[in-house]
Amino acid sequence: MTTTTAPRPTAPAHRRTLARMALVEGRLLLRDPSVMFFSLLFPALLLTVLGLAMPWADQPYDAEDPFLSRISGITGYTPIVLSLAIATVALSTYPATIATYRQRGVLRRLSTTPVGPGRLLVAQVLVNLVALLAAAALAVAVGLAVLDVSAPSQPLLLLGVFVLAVLAVFAMGSLVAALAPTAAAANGWGMTLYFVSLFFAGVWLPLPIMPDVVQDIATYLPLGAASQAMTAAWVGQPFPTTQVLVLAAWTLLATPVAARLFRWS
Q1: Dihedral Cα 254, 259, 264, 265, nearest 10 deg
Q2: Where in the chain are the domains?
Q3: CA angle at residue 91 from 89 to 92, to 5 degrees?
Q4: How far apart are the first and last CA of the chain?
Q5: Cα(159)–Cα(263) distance, integer angstroms
Q6: Which residues, at least 6 apart from 29, have a Cβ–Cβ distance to it below 8 Å?
Q7: Per-residue pLDDT of the chain (265 residues; tens, 9 = 90+)
């Protein structure tokens, strides 16, 4: 008696599956007002409030630094706002979304299909990357038009670093998404990482005025490296080689680990 095995899905079939999943996730994002707000509008709103309300907005970002003394406080803070926007989605809403799917049994049903955890995580990252790119463009446009933010010195480098930062911070968020059994657990784990990451990104205090040891630690964390690299691209500092390598390493190492540790239920 002969037996037959089902043919393996081809590469085009894998791409079509990923595209359909990304389309579905995009539609779900558009239907959720809170996710839409934090993904698209939050960076521009936060930057506007800081630029109009904070007395330091038009002061030098760092009077002792030869580069940063030539830019305003709100210009120096703009890359930090972009980093904060990435972290808000990657470490808060994204892990909670995957954990909610797990809690409601959606992932268990998906586990009986050819859809793998890697493809699900990639679809989520792609959708949120598009949303964050739109949010960053809106925030930068508002900053340039309303707040007198200086234009970035190296816009292409800034764009490349921003995309790499999204991938790296989402890789960290994917570790939470892969393991958190419930939405509450994902919120707890994600928010812990979120607030620690914000400290090392310079949200509470600008990194240039922090102790050297804090700046060194920040360089090797995804959000800290993102903040430093985007600031360097914005103000025209030398190419942030170390930070770019750190972001690439987080992306290449954490993403497959998250897919391997992924729990369907």
Answers
A1: -20
A2: 13-261
A3: 65
A4: 38
A5: 33
A6: 35, 36, 39, 127, 128, 131
A7: 444 444 445 666 667 777 777 777 777 777 777 777 777 888 889 889 888 888 888 888 777 777 777 788 888 889 999 999 999 889 988 898 888 888 888 888 877 777 677 777 788 888 888 888 898 999 999 999 988 888 999 999 999 999 999 999 999 999 999 899 888 999 999 999 999 999 999 888 878 778 889 999 999 999 999 999 999 999 888 999 999 999 999 999 999 998 899 888 7
